[in-house]
TrEMBL record:
It comes from the Bacteria. Residues 8-123 form the Response regulatory domain. Keywords: Phosphoprotein. The modification 4-aspartylphosphate is found at residue 58. InterPro entries: CheY-like_superfamily, Sig_transdc_resp-reg_receiver, ST_Response_Regulator. Pfam families: Response_reg. This is Response regulator.
Amino acid sequence: MSEKRALRVLIVDDYDMTRTLLRIILRGQNFEVVGDATDGAMAVEMCQRLKPDIVLLDVVMPKLNGLEVLAKLKALNPMPMILMVTSAEEERVVAQAMQSGASGYILKPFNTASVIETLNEARERFIVRSAASVNRVAPNL
C-alpha cells in the first residue's frame, strides 16, 4: 500500500455531519482530503484550484445541485472522478448522473466499509485511467 500515492479527495456536501464522517472514514486509508465544500458553486471553484483526483459530490445542495456541478466539472482538464453521494430516494438522479459522466455513487446512510470499498474501486479505475494516459502519450515521444 505504501507504494501507491494517496489520491486527493474533495468532499462536497452541505451537511456538516456528512463531511465530517467522510473525512474520518478516509483518514488512514491512503486518501488525502484536500478540502470540503458546502455548496455547488464552492465545489466548482475548489476543483479548479485544488485539482482533486476524486470528488465525493452530494446531489442536493444550495447554489448548484450535484448534476449542475457535474456538468461544470466535465469541462475541467483533467476531470476528476466523480462519485455521487446520495440517498436511495434519488435513484433517478443517480442514473442521470451516471449517464452524465459520474464514475459511481455512495448511498446514504453509508457505512465505513461501503465508502472504503467504493473509493478503492475508484482508485483502481484511476490507476488504469492514468496508465492509459501514459500509454497514449508514450508513442509520440
